[in-house]
Structures are given as C-alpha cells and as structure tokens.
Amino acid sequence: METLQQKILRFFYPVVRKLGKISKNGTILENKKNSEPKKSFYELKATLNNGQETDFSVFKGKKVLLVNTASNCGYTGQYAELQSLHEKFGDKLAILAFPANDFAEQEKGDDKDISQFCQVNYGVTFPLAKKSVVLKNEAQHPVFKWLTDSKANGWNEHAPDWNFSKYLIDEKGKLSHYFGPSISPLDDQLLHSVK
C-alpha cells in the first residue's frame, strides 16, 4: 500500500519531472566517441532482492537500462514508466533497478518492503537488485563503480544526480548514455536510444 506521502508524490510527479528538466536532473550524456569499456560490463554481477545472483553475461546481445530507484521520491512514478518500457521492449531490453537510500533518505524500506511496494503499486515485474549504495564512496555498488569510472566504462565519470538516474548499455556491453532523473523512461530521446 502507498502511504499518503507516496500518493502525493505520485500526483505531483509530472510537475516534478517538468521542473527538473531545467536543472541538472535533465542531463543527458552520450558516448559520442563510441568509447570502448576498459573493463567488460559482462564481468559484473548483482544480487537481486530475492537473494539470487545475476551474472551480467546473461545480458549479451541485449540493451540494459540500469536505474537507481527509491520509493519516496518525486520521481517514483517512473516505476510505472519503466514497467511500460519493460513490457514493450523486454525481448531486447533488460531493466535492472537498484534501490538506494542515498538521496534524502527516500528509500528507508528493506528489500522485502521495496519489492512489495513496487509490485502492489506499479505492477513491477523487472528485477530489483538488493538495496545498495550508488554514490561514489567506499560502499558504492560495483556496478555503479563501473558506471561512474571512465577507467572502467571508457568515458563516463558522471554519478547519479538523484534517484531514477538511468544508464543505458548497448548490445555489446558499451555504456552509451546517461539520462538524468527528469528524463522519463518514455521520453523520445531515451526511446530512440533503446530502439
């Protein structure tokens, strides 16, 4: 069930997204030089919130969208948009959410609470990783270390600006784009990059 705060955030999501587009939350970065990763994306792994480990080699030949998420954020409505994207492109796009409590403590729940919240309120069927740290520090999840270190991914140093920052990996394991939190998963630029 949604709390009153979560219902209010869902209601105001379109306004939050529009206002955010004129700030750093509307950032879009692209691998314009087509830089190759220095460390293979497919060597990475993540533990899902059900305890299963996912070896990223299973994503070969697919695009992958990695998103840091939170249940009590103005952008939480993007769970519905991510689910829509998953349903539309699931055969050629894998989506993996990384719940994190890094921004204004907007994800205080445990893995079970987060999973239940996502399924009940947004019908989420794409995988959720175990709650982790996505910001640059010693506790940063190895996947986000790769995403934010040019010595690993080949070009990008940009850490998530807020919850619902999105990193797109192409079919060959190359980081192709960063989309800030205000860029909807159904935004034309993101959709064009996925197709």
From TrEMBL:
Pfam families: GSHPx. CDD domains: GSH_Peroxidase (cd00340). Keywords: Oxidoreductase, Peroxidase. One of its GO terms (molecular function) is peroxidase activity. It comes from the Bacteria. Belongs to the glutathione peroxidase family. This is Glutathione peroxidase. It comes from Fontibacter flavus.
